[in-house]
Amino acid sequence: MARRARLIPLFAAALLAMTGCAGAGALGAGEQTLVVAIVSNPQMNDAVDLSKDFEAANPGVNLKFVSLPENQARAKITASTATEGGEFDVVMISNYEAPQWAANGWLENLQPYVEGTPGYDPDDFIPSIRDSLSYEGNMYAVPFYGESSFLTYRKDLFEQAGLTMPPNPTWEQIAGFAAKLDDKEGGVAGICLRGKPGWGESLAPFSTVVNTFGGRWFDQDWNAQLTSPEFREAANFYVDLLRQHGQVGASSAGFSECGNRYGQGQAAMWYDATVMAGTNEDPESSTVVGKSGYTQAPVSKTESSGWLYTWSLAIPKVTENKQAAWNFMQWMTNKDYIKKVGSELSWNKVPPGCRLSTYEIPEYREAAKAYAQPTLDAISKANQQQTMTEPVPYPGIQFVGIPEFQDLGTRVSQQLSAAVAGQISVDEALEQAQEYAQTVGESYREKS
């Protein structure tokens, strides 16, 4: 594979000009402020609520959270880190960014901190998750939660309709179930899928459908493949399923919107991140507690099709308060934090998919008995060998692990969303998307 380009997004300077926040590590009245940029997902919001305990145990350290929706958080964190803006002491990134940014020299090497913290136990991290955050054998980010993808479904609705969910369903079977369970008059969609633009939004589930239908973004010579028969079949299937049996407003629905709909009983099935399960089973946010079954990601031509992803914490290289930043990060990602969430909030709110020991806690095993094993199974099978039919020149399952994908993926997702909304045809969307991908592929062929 050609060496990854070290590109800084062109919009970085403009985004930084709009942030208007104080510099990281600001000092006042003898106190230290750590600025932490996170994605506003439920598990992260729980961490914000519990962070008063960290501040109490660390006098003089104040935490300031910048919590944003996924697309906005990605843009702001990327802009700040790439340009060494210094706004943040701690940033929430994923296994897409971690190895690339480590190679670029943008992140602090965490291996000395990981190994030098008694009881932190990095060997307790699920190996595939730990490895995805490493570069040249060193961890550059530590996982807060890990995930693959699977399908949840309403067991009561299936029973009422006389349907049985197989343990390893195909997408064709899921489409058939969606058609039978779709109840537009009753306000229940046959299935909920992401249609919201964003390379980390709609393209995450969509790319897994492409993979299992036999498609890929680029062949081994970096020729774009977005108009190949396999990619086209997957796109038509995904768009048709959403338009015919998906949720209302599908073109603007992401993880959060689908979670709200499913949790309020407005969808019979939902294919998304395995982390959804905790929210589905939380009485504070869900009306369908105990009514859901969980099964592996639907397939077509492959053995499995789930993705591999982890939201993690990292320290920008320019951060001045590295030890204080690490102290907070290890607090938020250690074994004691898992127990704190379970005992003080709910065992269904525990950040899943990171530590093996989490799945040995009796209270968690009981609370998560419907989805704990499916989650571990999905993560363990999340590799290119089992989820793709052809070799590819890039890392990643639900993303293409190159810097340009932030822009390319977003552009393609906008075309996909427009097709879901009925503004353009799938063929028109793919023709335009192919042009975007060809430009990127040509740049990698030139480097080979």
TrEMBL record:
Matches recorded under InterPro entries: Bact_solute-bd_prot1 (IPR050490), SBP (IPR006059)
Keywords: Signal
SUPFAM superfamilies, sorted: Periplasmic binding protein-like II (SSF53850)
Signal peptide: 1-24
Listed PANTHER family: ARABINOSE-BINDING PROTEIN-RELATED (PTHR43649), DIACETYLCHITOBIOSE BINDING PROTEIN DASA (PTHR43649:SF12)
Protein name as it appears in the record: Sugar ABC transporter substrate-binding protein
Annotated organism of origin: Amycolatopsis antarctica
